[in-house]
Specification:
two-stranded antiparallel ribbon, 13% strand, 11 helices, Rossmann fold, binds flavin mononucleotide, 306 residues, alpha/beta
Length: 306
């Protein structure tokens, strides 16, 4: 009997739907046993998010301060053939319930020397989060065999409005009579997710190794190379401001409020100035950076490839 552990968390249910579709071919196989570990923070994160709480969460998220989790159901000495980690991106980092799990002592024994597949459902900025994830998996001695990233269908520009509106109002849209489209991953992409489960099932049933070729040729990810420098700059800014905010006071404290207010003005100014400037610089320097970008693109797309 092959054994698969699926660790997941979702606020709106989107990532749970993706996970369900992804794992359906495994669940329906008589010779594969699937264990689902639904992560439950002791203090649930709010949904919809009050604006200030949303903003105030980024320092702890970026610095991976683990929120307390309810005790996982899976026991430390369970032995799995594959671990699937389904996570969403928060502030260019893996979401806090997932980083908390990865820091839980049980993760160390469950993931050591195990092949892992990461399954991401996010707006569209997952590159830096997955770099964090790779680092944490390395630290745990796990092997990343594949990565699948599903992103919002609205596209980079419109999802920039649609997804925050969804998070802050709880409504998925469309908004403003359709001028801002519905937020979230398309139903078509979610439905198509079972192709990954089918591939994993084939490999497990054939007794083949779950190595880095596991999800190749299935269009598991698309790397938007226009986002590489924005993500890098954004992550650096989150780290810098996050360090300052953590020094000022704990999450939720009144001392943070003025810094957060200043930060939100700074953020909007950055988005209105630095982002368009970055687009322009990228266009001008494109012929010089083509090779480097192609190299980075392949690195971010690894191991599944585009
Ligand atoms: C606090 C917070 C921060 C987020 N930051 C990002 C981000 O940096 N990049 C991104 O692509 N999506 C971001 N998202 C969107 C999520 O990745 C995800 O698409 C959304 O929360 C729905 O996931 P769910 O399955 O938990 O409902 C963020 C969402 C929240 C709540």
């Amino acid at each position: 009997m092959n054994k698969v552990l699926v660790v997941h968390y979702s606020q709106t249910g989107q990532l749970d739907s993706i996970t369900k579709q992804f794992t359906q071919p495994l669940v329906s196989a008589p010779d594969i046993e699937v264990t689902f570990e639904n992560l439950c923070p002791e203090q649930p994160f709010p949904f919809p998010w009050p604006f200030l709480t949303f903003l105030d969460t980024f320092p702890e998220c970026v610095y991976r301060d683990p929120p307390a989790l309810k005790e996982p159901i899976v026991s430390a000495d369970d032995d799995f053939d594959l671990v699937v980690l389904a996570y969403q991106v928060w502030f260019l980092s893996p979401s806090m319930p997932m980083t908390a799990f990865l820091q839980h002592p049980r993760a160390a024994s469950l993931l050591k020397d195990k092949p892992v597949v990461t399954l991401i459902g996010c707006r569209n900025m997952w590159l830096m989060a997955q770099e964090d994830m790779k680092q944490m998996l390395d630290g745990l001695g796990a092997r990343l065999a594949g990565n699948v990233a599903l992103v919002d269908e609205a596209g980079s520009f419109l999802s920039f409005f649609a997804t925050p509106l969804w998070m802050l109002t709880g409504r998925q849209g469309p908004f403003l009579g359709g001028r801002i489209p519905r937020a979230g991953v398309s139903q078509r992409d979610i439905t198509g997710c079972d192709r990954f489960g089918i591939r994993i099932r084939e490999r497990l049933q054939a007794g083949n190794a779950l190595d880095e070729t596991l999800l190749r040729g299935l269009h598991a990810v698309t790397v938007d190379d226009r986002l590489i420098s924005s993500e890098r700059t954004g992550k650096r800014a989150f780290r810098l401001w996050g360090r300052l905010l953590r020094a000022v006071g704990p999450a939720g404290s009144w001392q943070r409020r003025p810094v957060l207010a200043f930060y939100s003005v700074f953020l909007i100014a950055m988005i209105l100035t630095v982002v368009p400037l970055g687009v322009l610089v990228r266009k001008i320097t494109a012929p010089l950076t083509r090779k480097r970008i192609a190299h980075l693109r392949a690195r971010f797309a690894a191991p599944s490839g585009e």
